[in-house]
């Protein structure tokens, strides 16, 4: 395939990736009564952006010491625009415009990651067709699509990580201190966004494998610090980094390791789709075979660019105590690469219509898979729950809706053993923690130390009593995502509502009169 045609295909796939991701930016805009952001972690980055724009801004609470890289992406253009207008002293803007700008920026990162993956596939020695297949799979990449329109650090951090690994591979192919430096810069940016460390061993080994190690180590170190400093606008102190690392390793929860791994395995088809999961297994066998037969040079590239970082991240996912599907996001591009290998080989051996129809069938399936996963952002069950409250609950009625207490129309009360509001609005992705824990549906963990929400024992028992039917509350309404694809439905039935995208079934309970 001529290089010009190959590049045109990449541009077309970038457009597909953009179209798949961009509509999700408006998630929450159709919430009854006005916009309501639904992803709890987005507020971390919005709050930090407000503080970067206006250091004197009063949040009303102590912000978490999370890396500032994501927030800086929004704060930097905002500050530049203010300087250009001569209005630098204005107070920090409201949350909504910062949120929207942040989501759009993350969408662009998601699209750019598709192109980096294609370049990496070529670097590993595979042909244009395989690179295009991997890029197409990531363009319609399940979890990567939904995570690419949240104002979070996961997708931007993954972009810089993959870019750094790609540049490392280029340096291994032809040692170049400047290229190694830019790889270090990308790794530093990934660290400043998400504290990604899984590329650092590869960076160190690449330094040691090249000539003039002291020079290469110095350049890589300087560029790494520069990437970290620039991406965070120099706002992340050593003290804050230490606090963040401590907060990330001192979770009080005690979870069974084996069951946690099993839950990720069960959820994997709902993260990447069933065809990609199956093709990935076949592709893994092909990759192992290619690695064993490859030259020593190719083996080093495969080890440092793919196997070592992917293996380290898989280890971190397994050992991480809080169980969320988005933690496996950095493994998704490699899954797309592996899935592309058998189809790429089939196209090479049988370039006629049957192989092409097979590829078209997989892409069509992925498109439907993404559509089914993305439409729930428009038809969010929370929208239906809010509309039901509006029609059936008096505004003066005390209600409990976790993370949605700023819906001003109602009188909100926190649910405790002593204080039990008349109406409870429960999202099953939250209830999953205390109803299922790290276990099968309705397993009801008996010890509060096994529950992610860090609830006290008496409150845990009270929350479980709601679902056991051992409380004065009775279910009065239920609003589901209404998934069609078998992967989503299977996971829900087998292990409960462990939302992959923070959209889940909403159940409303009402306390019976006594």
Main traits of this protein?
single chain, 514 residues, 5 strands
How would you portray this structure in words?
By secondary structure, this protein is mainly alpha-helical. 61% of the residues lie in helices and 5% in strands. The chain has helices spanning 3-21, 42-53, 69-85, 95-123, 128-139, 143-147, 154-173, 177-194, 200-209, 213-231, 238-249, 257-272, 274-293, 296-319, 332-349, 353-374, 381-392, 428-435, 457-468, 486-495, and strands at residues 398-401, 411-412, 423-427, 473-479, 506-511. The longest helix is centred in the N-terminal third of the chain and has 29 residues, at 95-123. The N and C termini lie far apart (76 Å). The model has no long low-confidence stretch (mean pLDDT 89).
Distance between the termini: 76 Å
Provide the helix percentage: 55-70%
Which regions contain 5 or more consecutive residues with pLDDT less than 50? Answer: none
What structural category characterises the helix and strand content? mainly alpha
Global shape:
globular
Provide the residue-averaged pLDDT: 89
Order of helices and strands: HHHHHHHHHHHHHHHHHEEEHHEHE
Detail the topology: elements first, then pairings.
Elements: H1 3-21, H2 42-53, H3 69-85, H4 95-123, H5 128-139, H6 143-147, H7 154-173, H8 177-194, H9 200-209, H10 213-231, H11 238-249, H12 257-272, H13 274-293, H14 296-319, H15 332-349, H16 353-374, H17 381-392, E1 398-401, E2 411-412, E3 423-427, H18 428-435, H19 457-468, E4 473-479, H20 486-495, E5 506-511
Parallel strand pairs: 1-2, 1-3
Antiparallel strand pairs: 3-5, 4-5
